Amino acid sequence: MQFNHPAGVLPQLKEDFHEVSPHPHSHHILHDRFGTSRGHVAATHITFVGSPLSTTGNSDFRRLRDCCPRLQEVDLRRSLCQALPPNALFACHRLQTLLLPDSLQSIGARACYACDSLTTLILPPGVTEVGDEAFAGCRRLRSLTLSGRPKLGRLTFAGLDSLQEIQVSAAVPPPAHPSTFLGLRGRSLRLRVPRGSEQAYRTAPGWSLLYEADEDAAQPAGPLGLLPAPDSLVQTGGTLLLRHLGGIEADPSLTNEYQHALQLLATRTTYRPGRGRARLLLRVDSTYSRHTDEAYRLEVTTRGICITGGSPRGVFWGLMTLSQLLDTPDPEARCSALPTLVITDQPRTALRELMVDPARIFISLDDLRPFVVEMARYKFNALHLHLVDDQAWRIEIKSYPLLTEQGSSRVGMDDMPLQISGYYTQEEMRDFVAFAARYHVEIIPEIEMPGHEVAAIHCYPRLTCGGQQVPLRTTCGVSNELLCPGEEFVYEFLGNVFRELSTVFPSRYIHLGGDEAGNPPLGCWTHCAKCDSLRHALGITTTDGSENWRLQDYLFRRVIDTLRTQYDKVPMFWYETDFREIPAGCITFAWRHGLTAAAIRAAVDNGARIMLCPGEHCYLDYPAAAGDMPEVNWGMPVTTLEQTYRLDPAWGFGADFEEAHLMGVAGTLWSECIPSVERLYYMAFPRAMALAEAGWSAARRRCWEDFQRRAERQMQQQAARRLLHPTAR
Ligand code: ACM
Ligand code: ZN
User: Fold this and answer.
1) How confident is the model at residue 13 (pLDDT cuts 50, 70, 90)?
2) Looking at ligand 1, which atom is closest to the CA of residue 452?
3) Cα–Cα distances in Å, from 372 out to 91, 192, 322, 659?
4) Which of 188, 436, 486, 553 is least enclosed, having the fewest CB within 10 Å?
5) CA 668 to ligand 1: nearest atom
């Protein structure tokens, strides 16, 4: 450690923070507790002394994690800290050194999850418990010392790809979960234990894995726990031994599905091509279901597996079901046997999407690829990308290069002093769209209007009424600048944007936003001469506020006309009650708390279709429990897993509404408080599993108690997948 205090500093330390040795490249500060000071934001090395760090709300740990983006070293040895709370330093990617105090007694779940710059770790002797996934994914950790005999949780040290040495002082092996060291099996690793206790470690739960050879372990499938629950499943009492599978036969239209099937069998089962006589058959039968081309039938017999789908999509969902059937209790084992069964299945709703928001905090396409794969496992069929907002513009538009040159980089998201930069080139996005299509996940772009457009206005001020440049927004909330409906350049701009995007996104859908452009922002149209001329030209004479909604209606109708006539697109909107007319043929999203019934009535009255993503069930960016991440936010309510699960996609409106108007379900992941891809997964799952089941499974197949059991197993499998195969395709 390269940290030397000037003599005499420690005893006098009383102030909030004290700068010890400022240096151009490292900024050391010494704290007893964070107060209101923001001096810590540039800190690379922080030493805490004295009173324990706070652990709730905007705690010391939350600020270390979210507000110190340059942090390399945290020294707690002289603090009286007794606990590292759950998620304390979750995904602090730059943290290289963590020095723990002798007073420490417990380390919470995921406390240092994916701190993938840490290289050494010494757990003090007083630590009695280290929670689930506490150091999972610390991929550069080379040396681990356990001085005491702590109880070790599920996946606590899983996915430590660089670990070379574990040193343990306890003669009796610390109690460990079988998955504590997942991923370390067969690694050349030095395990130093007290003389005479090696035999005890060799056979102890969890520890024994470190002595096992990396042979191809095989196991029969675990208990069935399909998620989303299929429409019908009948077990027929036999067993298919997967080593008897010798080949795959697929219809010619199923080359993509054939590749997925091959990958599935080759990596997850004891299948040996050419050996056995059993077959995996993939078939398309377009007459299979009258309702949807996503329906499929999956049959496992002692002679093989047959998946018949109404289309390649249906076959693919059958393969995703097969993939879950192949899950083994030990996630590193290959599946050796499946129970024979017949599954017939189809989705309840047509469009099942998650929305990701790279505008507030950028997320790379490399990070989104595995996310798409996880979505597909639960039969989501769309990823909605919120590509522009007040804080950034994230998609290359060749006609307007400033959008990404000047509109895609800023410092700060609320109190997080992060450098947030990045955009997707059209070519990268085409690649991503093609990747997702192989998983039957379509990418739906969203270009907001007339509000949430500050990034575009920042680059091209002519887009707004005042024509003044405004800075990129660095906080959450709603800005008062809107596109000006009376300015012809707005239509030219949007026309060019859509022309370019039509060559990037093949989806039939395009989301046009439309949210939160009511009052007060709409007031900017009241005093604009161009808006005035337009009102005049349109014969709008009201002065009760409706005049501006009519302007918005005009703007949308022009844009929709372009999208329909030139690009054959179906526009989508966030529903706002003030804007009562939903243009024919468009799709509206019910999102506001308490207004779902009103949105549904408007959809029915307008003959429109509706996506359900009411905040109280579907806003997955909200904390899932009080005090959970994001601990600091703009006042988000809690959306529990059970609330998400209890979403009724028909909202009690019955079968006729569902048949004629319900389009599907959506979960949002607005990213104001999602500063890393790890946080994206943390917020999304398991609630996205609950939403997947709400959108896919028939009401009679859903059961909250049973779901919890299945979701727990799915979460364990997902955690293991992500730790063992972080870039799995
Ligand atoms: C929204 O959450 N503003 C759609
Ligand atoms: Zn105007």
Assistant:
1) very low
2) 3
3) 21, 41, 18, 28
4) 188
5) 2
Strand order in the sheet with 143-146: 120-123, 143-146, 165-168, 190-192
389 catalytically annotated? yes
99-157 residue pLDDT tens:
999 999 999 999 999 999 999 999 999 999 999 999 999 999 999 999 999 999 999 99
* CA 416 to chain centroid: 19
What length is written for the chain?
729
Nearest of 71, 92, 77 to residue 26 by alpha carbon: 71
Query: Which residue among 591, 593, 616 is best mutated to probe the pocket of ligand 1, counting the most ligand atoms within 8 A of its Cβ?
Result: 591
Give pLDDT, residue 289: 86
Residues paired with 445 in a beta bridge: 385
Residue 541: CB atoms within 10 Å: 8
* Banded model confidence at residue 51, pLDDT cuts 50, 70, 90: confident
Calpha distance 151→203 (Å, rounded): 16
pLDDT tens-digit map of 624-682: 999 999 999 999 999 999 999 999 999 999 999 999 999 999 999 999 999 999 999 99
Say whether the peptide bond before residue 450 is cis (omega within 30 degrees of 0).
yes
Mean pLDDT score, 697-722: 97
Residue 683's SS3 state is helix
C-alpha closest to that of 567 among 611, 483, 514, 504: 504
- Cis amide prior to 520 (ω within 30 degrees): yes
- Give the closest residue to 674 by CA, choosing from 629, 638, 725: 629
Cα–Cα separations (whole angstroms), residue 503 to 76, 82, 357, 500, 509: 54, 57, 21, 6, 13
| Alpha-carbon span 322 to 299, nearest angstrom | 10
Residues 480-505, mean pLDDT to the nearest whole number: 97
Active site residue 516: yes
Q: What is the pLDDT of residue 584?
A: 84
Instruction: For residue 666, give the ligand nearest its CA.
Output: 1
Q: What is the DSSP letter of 8?
A: T
Going by C-beta distance under 8 Å and a sequence separation of 6 or more, which residues neighbour residue 178? 205, 206, 209, 330
Query: Residue 194's closest CA among 177, 169, 217, 219?
Result: 169
Which residues sit with their C-beta closer than 6 Å to ligand 1?
515-516, 574, 591
The radius of gyration computed from the CA coordinates of the chain, to the nearest angstrom, equals 28
Cα separation, 202 vs 166, in Å, equals 14
Q: What is the pLDDT of residues 458-488, one digit of tens each?
A: 999 999 999 999 999 999 999 999 999 999 9
Q: What is the pLDDT of residue 9?
A: 28
What tokens were used for 255? 């080359």
Which of 510, 567, 568, 563 lies closest to 387 in space, CA to CA? Answer: 510
User: Does 549 or 420 have the greater pLDDT score?
Assistant: 420
Nearest to 335 by CA among 251, 468, 217: 217
What is the H or E stretch that residue 680 is in? helix 677-684
Quote the CA–CA distance of 510 and 501 in Å, as a whole number.
Answer: 10
Q: 138 and 112 in contact (C-beta within 8 Å)?
A: yes
Looking at the CA of 489, which ligand is closest?
Answer: 2
